[in-house]
Amino acid sequence: MNRTKVAILGAGFITDIHIESYHRFIPEAEVVAVYARNPDKAKAFAEKYHIPQWYNDIDQLIAESGCEVVDICLPNYLHADATIRAAKAGKHIIIEKPLAVTLEEADEMIAVCRANNVKLMYAEELCFAPKYERARQLVNDGAVGDLFMLKQGEKHSGPHTDWFYDINFSGGGVIMDMGCHALGWFRWMLNNAKVTSVYATMDTVFHKERTKGEDNSVMIIEFENGVTAVAENSWAKHGGMDDRCEIYGTGGVIYADLFMGNAAVTYSREGYGYAMEKADTSKGWSFTIFEEAFNQGYPHELKHFIDCVRNDKTPLVTGEDGRAVLEIIYAAYASAGAGKKIALPFSAKVAKPIDLWLDHK
Amino acid sequence: MNRTKVAILGAGFITDIHIESYHRFIPEAEVVAVYARNPDKAKAFAEKYHIPQWYNDIDQLIAESGCEVVDICLPNYLHADATIRAAKAGKHIIIEKPLAVTLEEADEMIAVCRANNVKLMYAEELCFAPKYERARQLVNDGAVGDLFMLKQGEKHSGPHTDWFYDINFSGGGVIMDMGCHALGWFRWMLNNAKVTSVYATMDTVFHKERTKGEDNSVMIIEFENGVTAVAENSWAKHGGMDDRCEIYGTGGVIYADLFMGNAAVTYSREGYGYAMEKADTSKGWSFTIFEEAFNQGYPHELKHFIDCVRNDKTPLVTGEDGRAVLEIIYAAYASAGAGKKIALPFSAKVAKPIDLWLDHK
Amino acid sequence: MNRTKVAILGAGFITDIHIESYHRFIPEAEVVAVYARNPDKAKAFAEKYHIPQWYNDIDQLIAESGCEVVDICLPNYLHADATIRAAKAGKHIIIEKPLAVTLEEADEMIAVCRANNVKLMYAEELCFAPKYERARQLVNDGAVGDLFMLKQGEKHSGPHTDWFYDINFSGGGVIMDMGCHALGWFRWMLNNAKVTSVYATMDTVFHKERTKGEDNSVMIIEFENGVTAVAENSWAKHGGMDDRCEIYGTGGVIYADLFMGNAAVTYSREGYGYAMEKADTSKGWSFTIFEEAFNQGYPHELKHFIDCVRNDKTPLVTGEDGRAVLEIIYAAYASAGAGKKIALPFSAKVAKPIDLWLDHK
Amino acid sequence: MNRTKVAILGAGFITDIHIESYHRFIPEAEVVAVYARNPDKAKAFAEKYHIPQWYNDIDQLIAESGCEVVDICLPNYLHADATIRAAKAGKHIIIEKPLAVTLEEADEMIAVCRANNVKLMYAEELCFAPKYERARQLVNDGAVGDLFMLKQGEKHSGPHTDWFYDINFSGGGVIMDMGCHALGWFRWMLNNAKVTSVYATMDTVFHKERTKGEDNSVMIIEFENGVTAVAENSWAKHGGMDDRCEIYGTGGVIYADLFMGNAAVTYSREGYGYAMEKADTSKGWSFTIFEEAFNQGYPHELKHFIDCVRNDKTPLVTGEDGRAVLEIIYAAYASAGAGKKIALPFSAKVAKPIDLWLDHK
What we know:
The structure is a homotetramer. Chain A is built from 12 helices and 15 strands.
């Protein structure tokens, strides 16, 4: 079997998850190179995962690694630049959320990928998380009648890495980091139905010393098809990751919980190594997660993209979808700034989405 | 022991719960009379519960029954009239939610009670529900640090009684029926902190044929103390009653679920009599609730009011609290009509709260 | 109302629960006196709960307190003596589990109570715990068809009080302390069906330094009606009280969990005062119980007995039932000693039940 | 990549799961042939799964299919014969539980495999189920201190296929079908510690018309290391598959539930296609399982065996382990027949294990 050569940009938290997914579940792909700005970090990562090449220069990686796919796990503000460089070199691209910091970047990324005839997949793993996908199949089978409300939330106590808290690097707070998941998943559940309006409330309640970004938010999204969706996101929720959805239809309801709802339940007087993402402690009661990457859909997502590359298919979630999510995020920040719901389509010229809120606070 | 004499107005669903509470948990009270418009219903109810007197005329009950307390379990549109009649006759009053249909009614009810020196308790049982109260104590003990978000929702598939669906009798839909619980509970949790704004989205998704009232809604309430509260209410959620809260603080989180979170979990091939409020079926899996009135706080609530009457104390939840909830409801309907958050204090001259939405839909 | 006068013997953990039950839920009873061997403890307890009289002499309490009911919350080895003294003085008796240490004691207690024409209730609160009672009603309504298996377990990390660990005072380990609950409840569920055999395995796994009593056990009880019952009991289970049952029938199944299955779920970075019985910590995740006495059925149990006394009824659970439980316990210890199931009826002459195991270990 | 060629014997329920596992998760294996006694069934199965060859003659399959591995998913009574034929032809063997009907068969299977130098893996998927494996890692990391009790149970309402109910084909009832899982998993958790004794109770409570085999049982296994293990198994439990374990140590406890504890929770008025294994209905509330094969460990198990074959490793679970399980089963039936615990090692000459119970009932 001829394996598809993948180069990964980034060597942080999410990259570990991608590597695990490739190595355990996607033998048809081969991670041939890794990039990190810090050469020591790049080298250590490559050694840890037996990746043959490491780089601390993106252009050099693109030129020399022999990769066909670039998997971008970089901080938000580097997304557009890396995508454009890779696309111009004819590499297929899968990129972590959010697609970009600004709509202008998103538009350029999409355009350059199209012009260079490379695939651009927006890596929204919730569109592949098996419990959520099972729920979606039930909906499509009519199990809950006609949908009228969706809820999804992702919450924890805040990222470990510094750049997330610098809004110039991230473009915003928890909505940029985790709200994008809800928005991507709502559109996925609704076959990319049009959003008609967004309302959002947000605040910085826990990490005030560390960031101007919002660390707690609620968004209400109205869709043309009549469905209302509620996204809750927080960097101020303690006790580990929370990732849940609720699906309401005229014929029933589905509750799916990816973390507490899958976990073994453990009481340990002394504690143990690791309970789940962002759990502060494993002493006392804890919810012990297993197959964490698999249950969030990372292997399914990456395997799908490798299949798209190998068999020339269109990814199920594209740059356009990432762009649509970013537009909703813009509208959400604008809504919080204005105190009213914002109609879509929406656009604004800003250096970063969160300015639409901060400048009107 | 000299027992406090109570007359109950109404003989429907909620009256059963009040009677159970008096009979099992409040021996210091004695239900001496019941009123229902339909004399057969009044008589049957009195016989069923061994209540010595029944009436189909409120004035006559007030004049003749010898009651000291009137417990009002009537449809919304009769609240003000019954309260005023009882107050003028010197009776203490405990009244089911919502306090009234309009703010003008509410103001008059409060004024008349004050003028006649009778107590007026707004019967928000969630302020007494023992699991919720346990959670409130934890909050007050600092278990979760500083609150920043509260969520509460009450959902089922819709009332059994017709008048709820007639907005001229009810004043609105699920917000008038169940949203008031969330609003009353938020204020209770926050020591009646001032509300600064309300945003609401609502729709009629399931009972379109039956009512103009909203049957699904989300409200976001911002408080002066910085706390954001989210109320979800639905008459379109199947599978039985859902009554849950989530409490978020800078030092932790509390989840409390009054129905599924208390229930025995049952699988019955043939089904059985009753699983929980509004459960459509008990065949297959069901969540079997127990001590349903107690777990919702009805006995605690009524016992508290009888204690207020016997020992001349001020109720923990008053007509003013009911009026404050109604003001938020007005603002919620206005918000849904305007598509923006509405600042409080808020007032409007309308025949019924829902007009603030329907007239601007 | 003429209130029934109750004297309580004992001032420990379980007495607090009885007092709370009388004071909040049983106004028709009045606790007039408390006994503790230590006069300071008796006095402090009386003051804490506004009990008018305290004694450190049981005979004096019986003679002088004016009580009609004696509620015995003493260590196991004092049960028989206290019961017999109270019965001879014409007092009605409710006694905490287990009924006595030996079958001879049990027989004498029953005989003396009968001779003196006083009621003797065996206080098995699980026969009154509302969630379990709800489950029993479902069974009686046919919700799960014909029963074929019952399971019940009570587990925590061990009693706080020293005498439990001294088998001369307790008569045994966790089976004497908590296994009796399962056995009492099985008989209650099965309308006191005859037990045909018992098998038990047991060991001392955690408190080896502190006791010769078993701190972990499994009992399998076979009933004449074909039902098999499994009791699991432990003093070696960490993380707080566990009290669960499972009910299997040819038409369905019921799961009921009195602690984790009722609790609010809390994450507290700093911890808080109290989560549930025997929880070692409230830091991190905890299961926050509410209305703990009520949910275990103590108020219902004691109210029932007061009603029996006031209205001359036979208690639902009697000394004979306690004696039957003790007989099963004897057989369980004998089974563990013999490595085979033991047929009932069973009797043996021993100083304490656990000897039937220890002497054959 | 040179793929390992696998032939599957059997075309029933479990074969579907094996095929899904190979196709989705084990690209290094290739299913080249399937056998079923009924040629139509074999052909249909091969077509459904795009398997190139089908056979209704085992010898022919072995001789002609070119397989290196034979994966045996046949009824119990065919295990030994198929294994021996395959081994003699030099094929590596992975075999579904139980290893065989009799100890003599088991011994011969092991001997023939050894003589022919082929690998024999006993396919106990619970040794690979990811949630259980996560729990085992915690135990090994000391999260719960020293183990003293293990519990595991597997329960549903009975197999769909007829041969299970014929004890001449199956060798017994639910213990042969599902009790073997618990026994295999206990040994796995305890590093194959020696069993010192077994006690079992069993009965036929639900399928009396259909089988002489036990359909409900409890086994208590004592290990040399002092750990007590309790296995509960049932073909009489309604509402879908139940597969749970509880792990008790001196420093904590772990609860892991593979079905209800992983599922999405759904209410569907109309029902939908499939909720989980053996769920009778999906109307009303149901527990919707996802990635059912993966969560039970089938892909991990089969992938492990293919790795053993490709890289000449010894399987983690071998024929000897399957034989040890069968010995415990013998002892369990003998125990139920004798009403006492049976010491191991144990052997008996019987046509089928269940005779040890039935002949002494």
